[in-house]
Design brief:
The chain is of the alpha/beta class and 171 residues long. The radius of gyration is 16 Å and the shape is globular. Helices cover 34% and strands 22% of the residues.
Amino acid sequence: MAKTILIPTDFTVESLNLAKIALQNNQDKGESLRIILVYGQWVSTSINDLLFYSKAKVLEKLESEEFKSSCQMLLGKYENTIEQMSIDIFSGTNQNAFENYLLGNKVTEAYISPNYKFKLKNSSSFDLIPYLNKSKLSLIKVNWKTSTILDQENSKDELSALFFNHGQMAH
């Protein structure tokens, strides 16, 4: 059975570093992984909005081409480790709803970075970190500043910072 890891995301390439670190930490363990990239966004209470709500359309608006390309690169690089990688939206309103989300998706651990500030896309977006900190889930906290990927790269080129280290392909 595959291990399921939750990674909070804000649809920036930089936020995918948590996924990359999770994959690197689990690559040699020989088990397949299910990665769920999750974004927090409340759903409108308007009846018209609810009638025509489509999670796929919401995700399409949130994802940039750079983010999609980076996800494809991760899938290609870790194809032997990743059983499934999905992107989802959590729209619950309390901790109990979040615990049920974790249980329903069989999440066993999550990776977070205490020093990374998520870039929320709109006024109905929210940070998942408080939910994760209160959960009973096994949390792996990653210090962004000690990441061997980002601490020496220029933040203007986030895509190459994720996959390259000093001009060499990151392994």
